[in-house]
Amino acid sequence: MNDLIKPYQIPLKTENSLFTLVENRTAYTYDSCELNVFETHQKAEDVKLVFNDFVFTSMLRGKKIMHLENKESFEYLPGESVIVGPNEIMEIDFPEAKEDQPTQCIALAISQHLIDFTLEMLNEKHPKVLDQEKWEIDPSIHHIINNQELINTVNRIIKISKSENSVTKDLYIDLAMKEMIIRLMQTQARHVFTSSTQTLSNHHPLAYAIEIIHSKITEKIDFDKLANAACMSRASFFKKFKETFGYTPGQYVLSERIKLAKQWLKKSNCSITEACFNSGFENLSHFTSTFKKETGLSPSSFQKQFRLHAN
Fold first, then answer.
1. Domain 15-191 carries which CATH code?
2. Which keywords are on file for this protein (predicted)?
């Protein structure tokens, strides 16, 4: 069962309004960025696309095969986003696109001026934990699994583009874009710190704290002790954790417990009660309500859906 977090679903164009069946483009242009909506209504291969600016793309419908410079080819699906550098050529295949099953994707071309302004502001007013660290977009983390915080900002940009007509429209877009840039860097930080926790924990206090959380995820976690282990006050620890990753330590613990609970619920012989206590929750009622709030499904419904799709 795949938990897709996709941007706002933009209505597809009717066939008679398309300029071309391959990568038909609709653009919304602003001072600091350009929102492009691409649709493809027939199979195609080796379609080349390039932007002069840094580009954030996100899939809405269908499937692409992406070929980026000096990177291995990969499938690109709804629930995922890809970043591409200025003047980097994208070669794209559309293996399944057809009239009744088109591919749709957004591409946000972002001015370097806006990126530089946002990074300078963050590095000056919200410096990273270590002196040698700087806020920056990491081009090596180019294929991203969406999270709700990142996509919420993308949704605001789409909705402003499609419905806002005031003279301050550019200002609204500018503010949403700055937040999106920050959310993107937080998303990348989550990937780096969770995929390389043990390596980073030797020299980075936040990675050390995450390693402790992982080792004690089924136990009651004392956040004061966690802050002490990171050599910070509780207030500073919470502030830096939230700035770096986009969520608080408590929210991270909860997300990890939900992730663990899903693993237990997928086991054929695991009960709801066992999944609850095996993933660090202390109360079955709290587990049930929290799981439903975070996933949209009760634990029993999640378990039934998984077993239905597994058979």
1. 2.60.120.10
2. DNA-binding, Transcription, Transcription regulation
